[in-house]
Amino acid sequence: MIKHQKPEAFYDTFERKGPGQKTTHYCPGCGHGTVHKLIGEALSDFDIADKAVFLAPVGCGVFIYYYFNSASIQCAHGRAPATGTAIKRVHDDSIVISYQGDGDLGGIGASEIVHAANRGENLTVIFINNAIYGMTGGQMAPTTLLGQKTKTTPFGRDKDIDGMPLRISELLNTMEAPVFIERTTLGTPKGVMNTRKAIRKAIQNQKDKKGFSFVEILAPCPINWKMTPVDARKWLRENLEKFYEVKNFRDKDGEKQSGKYPWMENAELLELLDIVKEKDKQTTRKTIKNGEEKVKIAGFGGQGIMSVGVLLSNCAIKKGMESTWLPSYGPEMRGGTANASVVIAEEQIGTPVVDYPDTLITMTIPALNTFEKNVNPGGLIIVNSSLINRKVQRDDVNVYYVPATELANKVGLTATAAVIMLGIYAQIKGIIDTDILKLILPQSLSKAKYVEINLKAIDAAEEYYKNNPL
Amino acid sequence: MKRLMKGNDAIVHGALLGGATHFFGYPITPASEVAHAAAYYFTKSGRHFLQAESEVSAINMLFGAGAAGARVMTASSSPGIALMSEGISYIAGSQVPCVIVNVQRAGPGLGNIWPEQGDYNMVVKGGGNGCYKCIVLAPNSAQEMADCSYKAFGLADKYRVPVFILSDAYIGQMMEAVSFPTRVKEAKRNDWAIYADGKSRKSWVKSILMNQNQQQEYNILLQNIYKEIEDNEQDSENYHTEDAEIVLSAFGICSRICLTVVRELRKEGIKIGLFRPKTLFPFPNRELNKAVDNAKKMIVVELNNGQMSADIQLGIKNRIPVINCNWYGGYVPTVNEVIEKIKKDI
Asked: Which of A302, B38, B106, B270 could serve as a FRET partner for B196 with CA atoms 20 to 30 Å apart?
């Protein structure tokens, strides 16, 4: 004698409407109960209910966790495939089942399902298509048929107003990644048997780490269709199955890998992040006059303005001072105006924005025009005289003209002009020196092949300043 | 050892040291460097980085990973955070820990990529639906960006709440010297989370309670947690407030500007100080009230329409006048402009 009993994956009683209940909250003739049963059986037969994580949708299936004796997350409307994506990345061996309806998956969650499928996430998605919104009381779904009357299409779904019913399986079938896509029906006993097979396959695929598996199930909703359960099955067969072809779209092999790089233990991680226990070395240096030096480096994008600012900041930190670097770009990455604010100080720095610089390093005429007036009286302006053919008009500041671009060209790389300017600055102000510049420069440059020529540029700045001191 | 680093990079280093294993994000200026650094370091270290298809998806990935017991984070900027609001409400409503970085830009709408602090209300007061709160940390330096992300995961786990790091375009983009702890933290197993094993089979992560009484009880439980956070986690910093007759208050980039303002005005003999909240929820009311004990006036400097000022006024119960000093649209005032405005008021 065959003894029928509830699969272990189900709870004995369903607490949704109070303790001791044996029936579900679903309406008479609803398709959810059938599908729940098929999933529960599969989990028990495969002995994976321990590992199963249900993604409860927003819709009638929201109470799924009252039925399955497995972990579950009640997801935001339509977002279950995103939430499931993350669970798989935390627990690779979990069996994540996203159980979604046509509004949840085909409407609000269309983006999430498309991208999860396209990534080939190793998930099992069960998509209940009953062509109507159940939970909210019978409104139009993305899959509602043309002419079908719902609460929000009282005159029937109109192609020109509401658009065509959405064929989700066909849509997902345009992608390369999914391994299994099938549309089944609950319209006939045979359809139920095929649904059972498809669900088992979609779960087995996940267990075997094959990738994205999707089962669309045409299901009745007698209450919202305003039919008896028997009439609803008939309508399903005669209408839904006509528009939504019941078939297997895809059943292929696959392998979903969980990550390229192996897990790094703590010591390795610290090494990757370049975190060393070494203490900061104390170096001898001058204290900064007034405790703070505000530098503005300005020119065009692509002249190395930003990098030279970072280099200056780096040198200051290595010398044991505080420093901030703040970039300011025009809308273009190259060719537009660019300036960097660098503050160097003995103690905690307040604002990192340099509005009134103590030193202005200018590479272009527009830069000089913009910032000349802002330099603090008694401050310093260093002018790249190769590119700026006018004199500084202020007479209350120190000015140093250096043909930086010419010198850079002699060194062999025009782009070293900014480094030459910084070399000059170091020698005039003495807050950082050219020795620390040479020490830090190789660490500060992202391209090793330019180190040597930039070091030569600093030599050129030293030689030029020796011959032309301020 | 100190090294020069952008706040947005420091956040990622701090997070990995703080035990973060998962990062889900979507690019947006001026927060993108966080995603850039995370894409490299999370992936290379065998943790997980994924660029989601949208901010909406990213936050729901945080929901999944957090529910699965992982230390998870994202970073975005103002309009992106607005998009995440639904998810944040679900996460808070389901008591799932996670860390969210907001490198604020100017709004409303698309606005621009310059710093603003217009998201104070959205982040501190909620933003999504329902009566929830997130812990909100307000760093004002690259070092604090690292410190905040290092400790944020522990806070999130302890109280089972989302933790925000509310930064801005300047704090994110600025480079400063940063030093890091050398101990890597790790997540412990949580009895409520989902580990896809027999022991966690009964775990339900949910924000739905159909019965009004149950939902009310649950809300009260949440409020009690927020009360506990208010009792334990207030953090702030004082600068020259002991004898101050005028107390400035500011957070984020504004607090750095105000630090210089206080130094300048002190040179002129004006008794002025600065009170800087380091946590915005919980708001540091205890220290705020001490800081204004001798003050005649408060001036709140913000890159918004006085959103924190409202909390200051509540916090001191309007004992002294509070004057708002506001800038908008990504405009960051110079020290002199702030001084000018303050002098008009005193």
From this structure: B38
User: Regarding predicted confidence, which is higher, B47 or A446?
Assistant: B47
Say yes or no: A175 contacts chain B, CB-CB below 8 A.
Answer: no
Q: Return all residues near B154 (Cβ < 8 A) that are at least 6 apart.
A: B18, B19, B185
Position A330 scores a pLDDT of 58
Quick count: other Cβ atoms within 10 Å of Cβ B39? 17
- Residue A427's nearest CA partner among A378, A468, A376, A371 is A468
Whether residue B209 lies within 8 A of chain A, CB to CB, comes out as no
Residues forming CATH 3.40.50.920 domain(s) in chain B: 236-345
Q: Name residues whose C-beta falls within 8 Å of residue A289's C-beta, 6 or more positions apart in sequence.
A: none
CATH superfamily of B3-232: Thiamin diphosphate (ThDP)-binding fold, Pyr/PP domains (3.40.50.970)
Taking residues A436-450, report their average pLDDT: 89
Whether B41 sits inside 8 A of A273 (CB atoms) is yes
Q: Is A373 on the interface with B (CB under 8 A)?
A: no
Report CA-CA distances (Å) from A186 to A74, A171, A222: 25, 21, 13
Minimal Cβ distance to A87: which of B64, B182, B263: B64
Using CA atoms, how far apart are residues A16 and A30, in angstroms rounded to an integer?
A: 17
- Arithmetic mean of pLDDT over chain A: 94
List of domains in chain A: 15-251 (3.40.50.970), 290-467 (3.40.920.10)
- pLDDT single digits (tens) B82-132: 999 999 999 999 999 999 999 999 999 999 999 999 999 999 998 999 999
Q: pLDDT averaged over chain B?
A: 96
Q: From chain A, pick out residues whose CB is under 8 angstroms from the CB of B68.
A: 53, 86-87, 90-91, 94
Q: Nearest Cα to B64, choosing from A202, A79, A203? A: A79
Residue B271 clears pLDDT 80, i.e. is over it: yes
pLDDT tens-place string over residues A259-283: 889 999 999 999 999 997 777 666 6
Closest Cα partner for B300 from B329, B338, B331, B334? Answer: B338
Q: Cβ contact (<8 Å) for A72 and B43? A: no
Nearest residue in B to A311, CA atom = B4
B267 vs A contacts (CB less than 8 Å): none
Cβ–Cβ contact B86 with A under 8 A? yes
The verdict on a CB contact (< 8 Å) between A79 and B63 is yes
Q: Is the peptide bond before A165 cis (omega within 30 degrees of 0)?
A: no
Asked if residue B128 lies in contact with residue B85, where contact means CB atoms within 8 angstroms, the answer is yes
Q: What is the ipTM of this complex?
A: 0.96
- pLDDT, one tens digit per residue, over A76-97 is 999 999 999 999 999 999 999 9
> Average of pLDDT values for B263-291?
97
How far away is chain A from the Cα of B234, in angstroms, using its nearest Cα? 23
The predicted model gives B221-234 an average pLDDT of: 98
Residue with tokens 């889900």: B24
Q: CATH topology for B236-345?
A: Rossmann fold (3.40.50)
Interface residue A83 vs chain B (CB under 8 A): yes
pLDDT bracket for residue A332 (50, 70, 90):
very low
CB pair distance less than 8 Å for B53 and A115? yes
**Nearest by CB: B173 against A69, A310, A326:** A326
In 3D, which of A412, A15, A55 has the Cα closest to residue A206?
A55
Is the minimum CB–CB distance between B319 and chain A shorter than 8 Å? no
CATH 3.40.50.970 placement within chain B: 3-232
Contact (CB<8Å) B256/A62: no
